[in-house]
Records
---
Amino acid sequence: MEQLLQAFFSGILSGGIYALISVGLTLIFGVVGLVNFAHGEFLMLSMYIAYWLYYFTQLEPYETLLINLIIMATVGYIVFKVIMTRVLDADHSVQMLLTLGLSMVLQNLALMLFKADYRNVRTNITTDVINAGFLNLSTARVMAFAVAIAASVALYLFLQKTYTGTAMRAVAQHGRAARLMGINIKKIYGQAFVIGTVLVGLAGVLMSPIYAVFPTIGSNFSTLAFIVVVLGGLSSVPGAILGGLLIGVVESMAGYLLGPVYQQAAYFLLFILVLIFKPSGLFGRE
């Protein structure tokens, strides 16, 4: 029983990180209507930034968090202005092919610059463990979970309580009506894309003491993020949070009960069942 609870709480901690990766993707899709297949590569880029800052300064990723997020915001702004604005009114198939191409370019660029080596950020927090009764929880994962959930909730409150957030929700509901009400659509698109990029950048910082970084790590997590987004209901931030936690628990419990080789099969099975019985997702509108 104790090992089962250990697996459950480990899944919850992992799910918090999955949720943070996914809420940025949810925001971009919900507001901009853009299916961003390069989302995982932004995660990879953030993890490399955290690694190289640690390598050259010996500062932990949390200490260089602000620098990392400023760089990611700049990257998001440049990518949106230079690339994404050209396909905002294009067919979804064109957008998907463009972002898929961007994903491959970033992957291969990382491969050329950094090779395929696995690079690790090893600090005191990496090996530190919190003992809570019979539970042994990684300090890095607990901290990552707390920051991830706080950031996800902050995004939800931003969308509900601020003028910009209200404008984003208006654009997500009906872009043409929002334009007629005087909302600058292109500006809102850009803000949503930059915020989504910063959120996935934050996820990269939180993950860097936990996971090794390599050029294709983004593709591994982007697939999982798309599953979480669909489970949650495509444009629902609470759905993405719940979906991330659910996927984390399913993955961890399947690994404990069935073995690690069945982890992906378990959450893909859950994904298929949700699509069959509730195609709009857990929090999605019909």
---
Amino acid sequence: MSAIRIMIVDDQDVVRRGLSLFLQAFDDLLLVGEAQNGLEAVRLCGELQPDVVLMDLMMPEMDGIQATRIIRQQHPNIQVIALTSVQDDLSVRQMLDAGAIGYLLKNASIDELANTIISASKAVQPPR
């Protein structure tokens, strides 16, 4: 089985770096790109074709909700997992409605994040 190709989208450098280090601990997870905002994420998804995108909700230029909607419309095979630091029911619902396959709080355990990425990569979800 080939490695799951992952892109991290978060406006905070420390979060991107932390997630990047986490991914290095798993042979079957491969970081293929990083973006600082949703606009950059949409562009990079077209170039990099990741299997799974870890997407922050609140970012400048284009938030995660709008970026997820566009990514899922343009690239229905790319799965998006919302990452958030606060569980805001409205934002989470909007993210799921935009096409995210699920969400995790940023304080999720390493195993929880890895299992969610693996599950998302195996899912077949129609575009919305």
